[in-house]
Specification:
The structure holds 2 protein chains of 2 kinds. Chain A is mainly α. In chain A, 64% of the residues lie in helices and 9% in strands. Chain B is mainly α. The longest helix of chain B has 33 residues. The termini of chain B are far apart. The chains are: A mainly alpha, B mainly alpha. The interface between A and B is medium-sized, with 30 and 29 residues.
Chain lengths: 141, 255
């Protein structure tokens, strides 16, 4: 019972096709988002520990708070990347935007020397760009 | 065993997370290809799937936390157990499918092979990370883990059962059976639950890591107890459903 599928540029709406939805066609943003999201979870713990450790060694009074902030920032970025990686076919443009935001959030923690975050940020960035650039198709209910 | 994949001696990628990610990706790609036979738009399921995946990880951590610490012991670490994730995942996915107005069993059947292949990748990740290890293999073929790994700290440099790979192999076979046996689509989840329950029950006898405690009075591991409950409940549901279907068929014939 597969539905009608056609590239978006061939789509000419008529009365019967009001339930048409525009969907992405590339699996690459999903793959990059999921792998980046899963790698981002240990990266966020690493970021938190690195910042707290460096801050503590430097004698900073709020090293623990800074560590929590970096942990939260990277974890939130990873979850954002994971969620919108999954949704990159469902809503390509918005997911692309969110993947780029996730790349910025995880990439921010690179300041702490968190090198796994570099991988996540690159994966999210490429995924986000591909989500924007991917071809779309129209799914008719 | 290789818990971290080194890139230019600067970046260490955790193998377990990488394999878990690749497992989910493989599962999703299969789901998308397979579901197009039964659905107009498989992307309708993507939001339920992402919610399910995230909450399943939470469920896996919570059950392991309960088994490790709970009321029995103190000082639990951050680890996961598959059954916690499976129970949470099935519950969450069923509830969301119901809310979306989809048939629950149909939705579960759609996603079952993907679950099996993702789990297989996860077990290979366990093998690389050195967790969920087996007991000493004696004269049977085994794996000697490197110095400093969890199995080495428990047993030393002796061969132990690569139980993670046994389970991964079983899950790959189960995935192939579920994916290839298209006529049995309506029984996918039931077949998975019964087969995996039996496989896990048997493999638990070869496990050598600390499995935690569910009931102190029962000399079985928590996963074995859950396996029994899982298999029995699914069998009861299957028999009940078969009876209902045969009754409906009889009524259809009589009318």
């Amino acid at each position: 019972m597969a539905g009608q599928r056609r590239p978006a540029h061939y789509y000419y709406p008529d009365k019967e096709e009001h339930m048409a939805k525009i969907r992405g066609t590339s699996s690459a943003p999903m793959i990059l988002g999921i792998v980046g999201g899963l790698l981002g979870i240990p990266a966020s713990f690493c970021a938190g520990a690195c910042v707290a450790g460096i801050g503590g060694a430097a004698g900073s009074a709020n090293a623990s708070e800074m560590g929590s902030f970096y942990l939260g920032m990277c974890l939130l970025g990873s979850l954002l990347g994971l969620v919108f990686g999954f949704l990159s076919k469902r809503s390509p443009k918005f997911s692309g935007l969110m993947l780029i935001l996730a790349a910025m959030m995880t990439g921010f923690t690179l300041i702490a020397g968190n090198m796994i975050a570099l991988i996540c940020a690159v994966l999210f960035l490429v995924g986000g760009a591909m989500s924007f650039a991917q071809k779309t198709e129209v799914v008719v209910e | 065993m290789n818990p971290f994949i080194q890139i230019f001696d600067v970046i260490s990628i955790p193998s377990y997370n990488l394999l878990a990610g690749l497992g989910i990706v493989t599962g999703m790609l299969f789901f998308e290809r397979d579901a197009r036979r039964y659905l107009t738009d498989p992307t309708d399921y993507y939001l339920p799937i992402v919610i399910t995946v995230i909450l399943s990880f939470g469920g896996a951590v919570l059950l392991q936390w309960y088994l490790e610490s709970g009321i029995h012991r103190g000082g639990a670490g951050f680890s996961m157990t598959f059954y916690g994730g499976l129970i949470t995942g099935v519950a969450v996915f069923s509830i969301i499918s119901r809310i979306m107005g989809k048939e629950v069993l149909h939705s579960l059947n759609l996603f079952t092979p993907s679950l099996a292949i993702a789990h297989a990748f996860g077990r290979i990740g366990c093998f690389l990370a050195g967790c969920c290890y087996g007991s000493p293999s004696g004269t049977a073929p085994g794996v000697v883990y490197p110095t400093g790994s969890l199995p080495w700290m428990r047993y030393g440099a002796i061969p132990i059962h690569p139980v993670q790979l046994y389970e991964a192999g079983g899950l790959v076979l189960l995935f192939c059976a579920l994916a290839l046996f298209r006529k049995g689509f309506h029984y996918r989840f039931s077949i998975y639950a019964v087969t995996y329950g039996i496989l896990r029950f048997a493999l638990e006898f070869l496990r050598g890591d600390d499995r935690g405690i569910l009931f102190e009075s029962i000399p079985l591991s928590p996963a074995q107890i859950i396996s029994i409950v899982f298999v029995v409940s699914v069998l009861i549901i299957m028999i009940g459903e078969k009876k209902i279907r045969s009754n409906l068929n009889l009524q259809g014939l009589s009318s």
